[in-house]
User: Fold Enamine deaminase RidA from Streptosporangium carneum.
Amino acid sequence: MAVTLVNPGGLPEIDAYRQVSIATGSKLVSVAGQVAWDADGVTVGEGDLAAQVEQCYLNIGTALAEVGASFDDVVKLTVYVVDWTPDKMSPFLEGVTRAASKLGVVPVPPGTLLGVAALAAPDHLVEVEATAVID
Assistant:
């Protein structure tokens, strides 16, 4: 594994993810923003933030597997959530937890969550992109 996740002293310790990742691999993998589509391009969990977050993470796992990587190799996630408000944190974390359980990843790597006005398709509530490093 080319990635070590760390919670540095002096920063808050967050159960769901780590504040820093250290990558030692030699190949950089960038996964385009993934939305809640299944393999046929049908939206999963229309109107359900938790279900869509879960599907986005699972899609990233699928993309990574195709190039010989896994979530263990992810150094950074960027998450875009439509009309973000703090009350959406609970369903967001529910989706992350379900996906992490299925993917066998706890905690997840560092990430940034951004509220956006809209995504490319009106039924998409969330989009997640990933950067990974592999040997």
